[in-house]
Specification:
heterodimer; B: alpha/beta; 6-stranded mixed sheet; 5-stranded antiparallel sheet; globular
Chain lengths: 280, 309
């Protein structure tokens, strides 16, 4: 493993990502809308306008069910103490419903950068030159993974910090609780999301080294959004909630999956196979 | 190379390559001397690119032995790739990056990032004024020059070029040939050029390998090939001679090619001097040229003989 080679490839790719507006602008916009604009609007309008209304049984039901069944007494009391259904909705949405949104942004952004990695080189005819260079395939893979990991995590963390500040500035005077600042969110942001992003990237880089065109790579990548859609539905319907423990388990599962994928990458460490399948 | 005995930089012995049950190369054997410029010639699909890939160890031979700079491409590919430069058929550069950034990136991959070297090469290839422009805005010829500079960043001992003149205009072709000659003379780099356009290589190659349908059909220096295949000399003479016999002049058969041009068919080069002496005793001669000794003519001779087998 050659650190310089990995960093050289990663830097080159990141520079390409950020010099192409077509790539980075959508990434930022997705994060801005889903992680910042949505919670800001929910917080502001939920508190200042009675958006939910009193007759909304649809939302009242899962919230009340959730409050009753919540394992932490403190949290249960906090929720029960909130004066109106609107406040409860805001609190519930920001604390629990935002989780899959953050997951979704991480997945979408990692997909954008990683599905392009090998296929992009191939489409520019540069993969051949890279394979003719005295670099190992593992270094090439790691450079590609790093080049996707850094911008994706960077955007996710930046979005989280901005969202954290704005949302709390709006809600703290009313709730007197710092939102996003609990074990669930910390485990989500610093355990689940990095591992999820890494999983998605390694998988996409592997797929993109196997398929022939950018479109194929995106198709495969798209499948990964499905589990997140499942989480959104389960959260909204109150079917099952992501507790810190479940999040921890999801992260552990992803870690094992990552180790498995890395093993697959090292098995795939064969210039001949890559060359014959990709270069014509 | 100061009187050193030329060593073999490439040795290929009975190499075959099969891919998807198709035989791409069959029993290919040749050697290349250090410091020489070699043409690997043959029609499209003959297997030229496959030879280059095998020598660099990016694909493996099915059978046979190879030594490149005393390394085995199968086992020690990286050692070869560290010491060899390559210009692939497509320019293989990042179009969204500047010329300088492209060269800096590749030199870092080779672990030889020296801005002096990049500057020097850009200057050598007359690209220094364009170093900050993106490669996507360059003409084919300019991209080729940057590819050449890229291939030379790490001071390679051996340079592989796959169809280096494809897509270039005549001026561009001359430039590339001129640069290659310069690199060979000044840096002592051994060069292997794949091409199907023969006349371009004539002026610089020391020896040739003719590849057809995956087999080496002939090899050698031009002189050797000429001696072997040039059995009849066509001599085009620009002269005021107007022989009475319309088919031969003093026993030398000829065809009239223009008002002042006669093409003689001679049994060997030895017949040239007596013929010219005869003509000069009668009239003027402005030029004379052997027309069937070009690489292309030799190539068709070789293919013709092989085809008859």
């Amino acid at each position: 493993m050659n650190k310089n080679t990995i960093l050289t490839i990663a830097r080159k790719d990141m520079k390409a990502t950020f010099s192409s507006k077509k790539v980075w602008v959508p990434m930022i916009i997705v994060a801005l809308i889903i992680c910042i604009v949505v919670p800001t609007c929910i917080a502001y309008f939920g508190i200042h306008f009675d958006i939910v209304g009193t007759s909304s049984k649809d939302i009242e039901k899962p919230i009340n069910a959730f409050i009753k069944g919540f394992p932490s007494v403190d949290m249960r009391n906090t929720l029960a103490a909130l004066p109106s259904l609107s406040y409860k909705f805001v609190y519930f949405f920001l604390t629990f419903m935002m989780i899959p949104f953050f997951l979704m942004v991480a997945i979408i952004n990692s997909m954008v950068t990683s599905s392009n990695s090998f296929v992009g080189e191939k489409e520019r005819n540069t993969l051949e030159t890279l394979l003719f260079a005295p670099i190992s395939i593992t270094d090439l893979f790691l450079g590609k993974v790093l080049a996707s990991l850094i911008p994706t995590l960077g955007i996710s963390f930046a979005a989280f910090i901005v969202s954290f500040i704005i949302v709390n500035v709006i809600t703290y005077p009313y709730f007197e609780v710092i939102l996003y600042f609990n074990s669930t969110w910390m485990i989500l942001m610093f355990w689940v999301i990095p591992l999820l992003v890494m999983f998605n990237i390694i998988l996409n880089v592997l797929i993109s080294a196997k398929v022939k065109t950018f479109q194929e790579a995106q198709q495969f990548g798209g499948l990964l959004v499905l589990p997140i859609v499942g989480i959104i539905i389960s959260q909204a319907s109150g079917l099952f909630f992501l507790s810190p423990f479940i999040l921890f388990l999801i992260g552990a599962g992803l870690l094992i999956a990552n180790l498995f994928l890395i093993k697959l990458v090292t098995k795939f460490n064969n210039r001949n196979t890559l060359f014959q399948s990709q270069i014509h | 190379m100061g009187g050193e005995i030329l060593t073999n930089i490439i040795e290929v012995d009975n190499v075959s390559k099969q891919f998807n049950n198709r035989e791409i190369l069959k029993d290919v054997s040749f050697i290349i001397k250090e410091g020489s410029i070699n043409g690997l010639l043959g029609p499209n699909g003959a297997g030229k690119t496959t030879v280059i890939r095998l020598l660099n160890g990016v694909i493996d031979a099915t059978t046979g032995q190879m030594k490149v700079m005393n390394f085995d491409p199968k086992q020690q590919g990286d050692e070869i790739r560290k010491r060899a430069g390559i210009v692939t058929e497509s320019a293989s550069l990042y179009h969204d990056m500047s010329a300088w950034d492209n060269l800096a990136f590749f030199s870092k991959l080779y672990g030889k990032y020296y801005s002096n070297r990049i500057n020097y090469l850009l200057q050598q290839f007359d690209m220094l004024p364009y170093k900050d422009q993106v490669v996507g805005s360059f003409s084919t010829g300019m991209k080729k020059r940057i590819s050449l500079a890229k291939a030379l960043l790490h001071n390679p001992r051996l340079l592989f070029l796959d169809e280096p003149t494809n897509g270039l205009d005549p001026e561009g072709i001359n430039e590339v040939i001129h640069y290659l000659y310069k690199v060979n003379q000044e840096e002592g780099v051994t060069i292997l050029i794949c091409s199907h356009v023969l006349h371009q290589l004539e002026s610089i190659c020391d020896s040739y390998l003719f590849l057809n349908e995956g087999r080496i059909v002939e090899k050698g220096a031009k002189q050797e090939l000429e001696d072997k295949y040039l059995k009849e000399i066509s001599l085009l003479v620009e002269t005021g001679l107007n022989p009475v016999n319309s088919q031969s002049y003093k026993g030398y058969p000829y065809n009239r090619k223009g008002s002042n041009q006669l093409e003689f068919l001679l049994a060997s080069k030895d017949a040239i001097t007596p013929l010219l002496t005869n003509i000069l005793s009668e009239t003027w001669v402005h030029s004379c040229e052997i027309t069937n000794r070009s690489l292309e003519a030799l190539y068709f001779n070789i293919r013709g003989e092989r085809g008859d087998e």
